[in-house]
Amino acid sequence: MGTVSSLSSLQSILESALGSAGLTSNSSSGSVNGSSASSQSDSTQLSPFAQVLSELQQLQESNSSEYSQVTQQIATNLQNAATTAQSQGNTTAANQLNQLASDFTTASTTGQLPNIQDLAQALGQSGGHHHHHGSEGSDGGASQTEQSSLNPLNIILNTLTSAGVTT
Fold it and tell me: Fewer beta carbons below 10 Å: N end or C end of the chain?
């Protein structure tokens, strides 16, 4: 299967998943040279969600055994975060992290991409691409770090970076 056709099918899947998760694609930053044509090969213009999916798909197509290892590590890290969230009494986060861990476990054994709708919902609810550093929250100082360690996007990106997958 050609890269162009798989990219366009990935784009339509992403748009569908983003729409069902109540998210919209960020096209305002896509016109660097003044044209409105989107550049699918420029990952710097992708949302974190699209970047994660793109990197997973590239790894899936180029090295299936590494893909299985990386997705299993993501599942393990998400499961650990779910356990932490549960111990803190945050059952909503725990349930979401457990669902994602299950999706990534399935992805590691089947070689398929994880459930895109679950991923879109989790990354959309976790604050998307904005990282909240500092003490702007009313929860106290330690909760910023705790929230960051339970953020599915942070967990996935950190795992991909540790595995040398991110660009």
Answer: N
